[in-house]
Amino acid sequence: MLGRHSIRGFQSKSVPDALLKEVFELAQWSPSGTNQQPWQVYVASGETLERLRAEFVRRTKEKVPANPDYKGKGRLKDPWKARRRDCAKVLYDAMGIEWEDMDGRSQAAFRNFEMFDAPHVAFLGMDGSMSTSAAADVGMYAQTLMLSLSAHGLASCAQGTMGHYPDLVRETFAIDQDIKILFGISFGYEDKSHPANLARTVRATLAENVVFMA
Ligand SMILES: Cc1cc2nc3c(=O)[nH]c(=O)nc-3n(C[C@H](O)[C@H](O)[C@H](O)COP(=O)(O)O)c2cc1C
User: Fold this and answer.
1) Cys bridge to 9: 92, 95, 133, 191, which one at CB 3.0-4.6 A?
2) Partners of 41 in the beta sheet?
3) For the segment 7-28, what is each residue's pLDDT rounded down to a tens digit?
4) Ligand 1 atom closest to Cα of 201?
5) Mutate which of 157, 181, 197 to test ligand 1's pocket (most atoms within 8 Å of Cβ)?
6) Which DSSP string do the residues of 54-89 spell out, in sequence order?
7) pLDDT in tens, 82-102
8) Quick one: fold of 17-200?
9) What is the pTM of this model?
10) What separation in Å is there between the alpha carbon of 195 and the centre of ligand 1?
11) What are the boundaries of each domain within the chain?
12) For residue 111, what pLDDT band results from cuts at 50, 70 and 90?
């Protein structure tokens, strides 16, 4: 658990097919409500990923509006807003970007659409008829998958930004329109020389999140 961190700089080297299968086989053991296993996972590699990456980059550069299947609900309040700011600051500090450097910050954000040079991206979705509880199951799957990746010496970064253009993902994988995309996970081998990978987030004290009552 403590060995996993979000990694935002990958080597170009692909993960061998046998290892990929082992990692994803293990993630299948994630729990879900009444064992429905609502996660639908689409893993892009090789030419498929390069085409997707180029199109994500093009749309972002040309400011094509994001059209996520699941939209945020209004403005973020504290303490969550402050935690989001702290998380960004940790990344900018690692990359040597000043808080006031808006260009530097947008370049760092743009790295999302280059998928941090990852050789693989898993897009996580579920049937649109399903509700919040299924989305929670997909989230649980995501953590199980990231821990499975870690346990196999692989690095990852969950990316909400991979939900910006779900139409593109559906088109690429010829997915039914009923399948909605929640987010993506870039993964592969860490590029240990990339400064972004020095970023380490913290966590709130236990008392802020957990109540024990006997
Ligand atoms: C659902 C989800 C979406 C995320 N989206 C992004 C993203 O779009 N870009 C990014 O750089 N990091 C993203 N992250 C990574 C978080 O910023 C990161 O998990 C958090 O700051 C805690 O840091 P850690 O993963 O190193 O422990 C996402 C994480 C999750 C779980």
Assistant:
1) 191
2) 124
3) 999 999 999 999 999 999 999 9
4) 23
5) 157
6) HHHHHHHHTTPPP--SS---SPPPTTHHHHHHHHHH
7) 999 999 999 999 999 999 999
8) NADH Oxidase (3.40.109)
9) 0.98
10) 17
11) 17-200
12) very high
